[in-house]
Description:
The protein has 171 residues and is an alpha+beta fold.
Amino acid sequence: MSSLLKEDLAKRLFGPLRRRLHEFIEVEGAGAERLYLCAAVTKGEEVEICMVKHLRVDREEKYEIVEKWFLKDLEMIDGKEADTDNPYFDMHFHKVYSMEAYSCASKYTFARTLNELNEMYLKKDLKIVNFDNTYLNDDSFWSSNNRDCLVLMRICFYASNLLCLSLCPLS
C-alpha cells in the first residue's frame, strides 16, 4: 500500500513540480484529515520537507502541499524520548513543529531519510536527539531495505532474549 501511495504522490504531485520524492510518512492531522510528511529533492539539489494534504474530490485523489521547509533550515530533530516506543517528534526550524507519526518505526524512517539526504546534499551538522542511534545508522546489523520493520525486529529480538532468560532456572 505505501509503495503505491508513494508512486501516486511522486506521479501526481512531485513529478509535475520537478521534484524527486525520497520518503514520506503519514502524520496525524485534525479530524479525518490525512497528512503526509515528505522529503523530496529539487532539480537544483535542494532538499525540501513538505506537509501534504490528501484530498478526495469527485472520486479522484488529489494532493496539496500545505507547508514547506528546507532541510538547510532544519536545526534539530527531537525524537522526544529515545527509551520509549512513541511516534512523537519535533522539527526545529525558525520555530518548533510538533509531529505525531503513524508509528514509531515511521518516525525513525523519516529521521534516517533526513540524515541520509543531509549527508548526500548538505553535509551540515544536523542535530538528531532523543533517537536510538542503533536504528538511525545504515551500517548496523539491523538495517534492511524494508526499514519500516527495523524497529519491530529489534524489539522482537530483545523480547525473545528476555523470554529465554526468564525461563532459565536460577542456580
